[in-house]
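To: structure subgroup
Subject: Chain for Friday's discussion

All,

I'm putting the inputs and outputs inline so they're searchable in the archive.
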Amino acid sequence: MAGGKLTPRQKMINLMYLVFIAMLAMNMSKEVLSAFGLMNERFEGATSSATATNESMLQALDTKASESKGEFIAAAATAHKVEAASKKFYDFIATLKSEVLVGVEAEDGKLPYEAMDKADNLDHGWFTGDGYTNRGKEVIAAIDSYKADMKAALSDKKYAPILNELNSKFDTAEVTNKEGVKIKFLDYHFKGFPAIASLAKLSAWQNDVKKAESDVIASALGKAAVSEASYSKFQAIVALDKNVYFQGEPVTGKVVLGKYDPNAKFSGFQGPGRLENGQAVISTTAGAVGEQTLAGSFNFVEGGKPIKLPFTGKYVVVPRPNSANISADKMNVVYRGLPNPMTISFAGIGDNNVNASAPGLSKAGGNGKYNLNPGSGTEVTVNVTGKMTDGKSVSDKKVFRIKNIPAPQGAIGGQGGNQKGAKSRLQASQISAILPDFLYDLNFRVTQFVFKVPGQASIVVNGDRLNSQCIAALARVSKGDQVTISDIKSKVIGAEGIDVKTAAPAIYEIQ
């Protein structure tokens, strides 16, 4: 069009053609840029959906691991390692996308795809001459680190196809172009490309990361559906060969996992019981003493065919109880004047069907708990009657010896036996009575004692402390003299009516 001499009119026409062709080229470029933008949207949408799906699948895998244990625990551990590696690289890619968008402003919440035709951000940030900048090297290092983390997490051979696909997608080796020239990985994929094209490529990377994560979790779950019934709905059932064993006899049986469906429909049930809510409720009567057998079957229809599922079990019938368990909780005798605690029961009979009687016996609150407060005499008999479920009664009895409370030991300042110390300590001390190593926790209140020092008359004291006469006599004793506290009378605090023997004397040597 530019050859030879042209008229002004022809020159104008040619110029218009050039302008028209340029406009076509501009329009084509805008369409391509918009296409990259739409691709970016598709990648980001798919990635967002994959993220939600992966979270749901990982939660399902964790549930399986907590319920079923076994192989699901290792599978969940692998999935979480992959999740951590994926998140680290995914978040790094997000920083690269933010670098692409430096200086780009969204319009009405949407990126201006047709205006994102420059390559300056990544060209200046990643490349220098024929090599990479530090940032470019960081990109390559991040890819290699991600692949290394995934390789470490996916050591099981069953994940090999996923790992091979990942290594292929993120192969950072040099790329040979159509002219046979080798080009660096980042140069081939990003150098000189419009910003929107680079953004779409990075979004594709993120989508590849989420796909690999999804493949791992799906493989870990195997063919089990996420909505499969949880193992927590099963029950561990102990099925012993029989229900009663004698001492020294081997205990045999099995433990199985089972569950029942309350909506299950059976065509019938044969056995000692009835069907209720998808299970058989056993109802029978124990027969002769010895080993007995329970047997029957569940009957149902499957695929139009009748199915019979037989069952069998054993139990042992033992004789009815005919003796009671009667024992003193703290000793093999009972003490007069004290509420001796006792446990009274009949094997196999509830406390509400057990009656016990004896002079001074009363209920103490809990099941089988009684207090026995015997009176006069040297023995007391406890009679027990139990009423069994069939209305018949059994009875038993036991005789206990009755003893008085032993004589306490005199004590000075809470300490019994012979003591040594200063006059002042004796003068300030309380005179008491104690019962060392007695099974009951009894507290005594001294009402009277006799105070005697060498060479002086005895002093009778009413109360539990030295009076003025005692103090005056004490002032005349010398070092090495022994003061005797004897004829100690006392009462049990809270049980004033109990007769208490005179306490043994207490000796105090003056120092």
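Points worth raising on Friday:
Confidence is low (pLDDT under 50) at residues 19-28, 223-230.
The two ends are 141 Å apart (CA to CA).

D.
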